[in-house]
């Protein structure tokens, strides 16, 4: 086992669905982790290697902007009170509501998740069709999904999963620093996410982000090399396309 990472596989012995990955397809990695674990930071580091990043939070923001595809349903379900003056989702108001009303949380997820999933599938389709020599061609694709293991139908979009993990006290300190939220609010957000222990159990690979950004960069570089090795594997005769 390598330091800083509890599940880094050896060589190209990659677990998850990668065993069935065909080199003619684009490899798809599902990136997950709790709030403040470092998902966006890690995704940005992979992006610098040319990996195409498809981020569920960014899609959710687009869907809930003025005129976004989720707005009409949100309006019908929750009324005017949850839209701001411009007609976009009032995030602060909605966050308050779903903290205290589990049924409302489910309703919001029932609106957003299928739309996010459909947009991710479309982005995967578009990215996968760039010819290898195109300037847009990425070596592989990465979906960033905080609820990868709990929201229906997302895990299935990826060949394998990568979790960014850090100790809880570091996680909380980073979110306080980034968002200025108080500890109690952060703990409530964490409680609504997939439990850390469950993510650690389910993830194929884990990047530990307790150290410096330089240490993180090294772990990302190692993981990237591993994914490149998988992408560059020659076709196995028994599954080669005719
Ligand atoms: P997430 O996307 O999982 O919510 P972020 O990538 O935004 O988390 O990271 C949370 C905060 O912690 C950000 O402000 C980020 O710059 C910072 N951060 C992440 N990793 C490290 C690190 N290894 N050292 C110092 N700061 C970090």
Note the run of SSEs as H and E.
Answer: EHEHHHHEEHHHEH
The tally of strands reads 5
Gyration radius, to the nearest Å? 19 Å
Judged by helices, strands and strand pairing, the structural class is alpha/beta
Model regions low in confidence, pLDDT < 50 over at least 5 residues: 1-6, 8-13
Number of helices: 9
Distance between the ends: 39 Å
* Largest sheet: number of strands, sense, barrel closure: 5 strands, parallel
| Strand fraction | 5-15%
Multimer state: single chain
Which hetero ligands occur in this complex?
Answer: adenosine-5'-diphosphate
The shape, in one word, is globular
- Overall pLDDT, averaged? 88
What is the percent of helical residues?
40-55%
Q: How are the strands of the largest sheet arranged?
A: 2-3-1-4-5
Provide an overview of this structure:
- By secondary structure, the protein is an alpha/beta fold.
- It is built from nine helices and five strands, in the order E-H-E-H-H-H-H-E-E-H-H-H-E-H.
- The chain has a five-stranded parallel sheet with strand order 2-3-1-4-5, sandwiched between helices.
- Helix 2 crosses helix 5 and helix 4 packs across helix 5.
- The longest helix has 27 residues.
- It is globular and about 55 Å long.
- The N terminus is likely disordered.
- Bound molecules: adenosine-5'-diphosphate (ADP).
């Amino acid at each position: 086992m390598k330091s800083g990472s509890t599940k880094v596989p050896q060589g190209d012995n990659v677990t998850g669905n990668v065993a069935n990955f065909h080199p003619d397809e684009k490899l798809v990695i599902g990136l997950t982790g709790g709030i403040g674990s470092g998902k966006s930071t890690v995704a940005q580091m992979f992006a610098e290697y040319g990996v195409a990043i498809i981020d569920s939070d960014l899609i959710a923001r687009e869907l809930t902007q003025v005129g976004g595809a989720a707005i009409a349903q949100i309006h019908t379900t929750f009324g005017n009170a949850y839209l701001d003056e411009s007609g976009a989702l009032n995030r602060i108001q909605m966050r308050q509501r779903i903290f205290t009303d589990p049924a409302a949380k489910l309703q919001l997820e029932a609106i957003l998740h299928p739309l996010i999933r459909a947009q991710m599938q479309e982005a995967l389709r578009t990215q996968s069709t760039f010819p290898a020599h195109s300037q847009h061609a990425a070596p592989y694709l990465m979906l960033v999904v905080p609820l990868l293991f709990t929201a229906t139908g997302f895990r299935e979009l990826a060949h394998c999963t990568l979790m960014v993990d850090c100790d809880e006290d570091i996680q909380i300190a980073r979110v306080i620093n980034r968002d200025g939220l108080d500890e109690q609010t952060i703990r409530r957000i964490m409680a609504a996410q997939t439990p850390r222990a469950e993510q650690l159990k389910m993830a194929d690979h884990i990047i530990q982000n307790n150290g410096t950004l330089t240490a993180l960069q090294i772990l990302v570089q190692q993981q990237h090399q591993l994914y490149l090795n998988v992408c560059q594997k020659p076709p196995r005769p028994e599954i080669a396309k005719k």
